[in-house]
Design goal:
217 residues, alpha/beta, TIM Barrel, 8 strands, binds 2-phosphoglycolic acid
Length: 217
């Protein structure tokens, strides 16, 4: 499986998000390999309208960008895993921006993984380096070095492979890369046959750029 995860972060209005999806649905998705999995991670309020728009396209799934560490209760503003059930299939956990801007540590991230899995959401677990601990139960790991996120300076594919080897992930774990991925560099990673896809920020904000990235091999 090749994962192409569009992480929109805190970008787009509802109208912009809807326009994105309408344009994307006009592109030739039927010619993509059945091994391709497109996962859109919009701001949470847009999950349901975008899911409704794209319901005929089985190749498209949805992720939420974060989930609460709390299961339920008096936590104003939190998005519980239970509330996302049936809306998103995946959840991004431990993105570098959550770790640094919102001080999420490994204990918090472990609680998020457990909550997500309890309610049937698959975590996409992000690490910044091979020193970050990966919870044993996760099946998708994305390596995203800080210097490469949003900078236009993508990590060398050989170094990405070194990180993968150092992690000694259980067999069957999907190992992804994120950090300034675009249509010009995606094929360098895929050529290694060791990287199962990408978490894509800036290059996913425009539907054409995203489509070109996922057809760039
Ligand atoms: P970028 O973001 O592609 O804009 O570098 C990647 C990410 O933060 O997941």
């Amino acid at each position: 499986m090749q994962y192409y995860i569009a992480n929109w972060k805190a970008n787009k209005s509802l109208e912009e998000a809807t326009d994105w999806m309408k344009l994307f649905l006009k592109m030739d998705l039927s010619s993509l390999s059945s091994e391709t999995k497109i996962i859109i991670a919009p701001p949470a309020p847009f999950l349901l309208p975008l899911k409704t728009l794209s319901h005929n396209q089985k190749i498209i799934s949805f992720a939420v960008q974060d989930v609460s560490r709390y299961e339920k209760g008096n936590y104003t503003g939190e998005l519980s895993a239970a509330s996302l059930c049936g809306i998103a299939e995946y959840v991004i956990v431990g993105h570098a921006e959550r770790r640094s801007l919102f001080h999420e540590d490994e204990k918090i991230l472990q609680a998020k993984v457990e909550n997500a899995q309890k309610y049937g959401l698959t975590p996409i677990y992000c690490i910044r380096a091979d020193t970050d601990i990966v919870p044993r139960s996760v099946s998708i790991v994305s390596y995203e070095p800080l210097f490469a996120i949003g900078t236009g300076r993508n990590e060398n594919p050989r170094q990405v492979l070194r990180i993968k080897q150092g992690l000694k992930l259980p067999d069957g774990t999907a190992f992804l890369y994120g950090g300034s991925v675009n249509r010009a560099n995606a094929s360098l990673y895929l050529a290694t046959n060791e990287i199962s896809g990408f978490l894509i920020g800036a290059a996913s904000l425009d539907p054409t750029a995203f489509y070109q990235t996922l057809t760039a091999h």
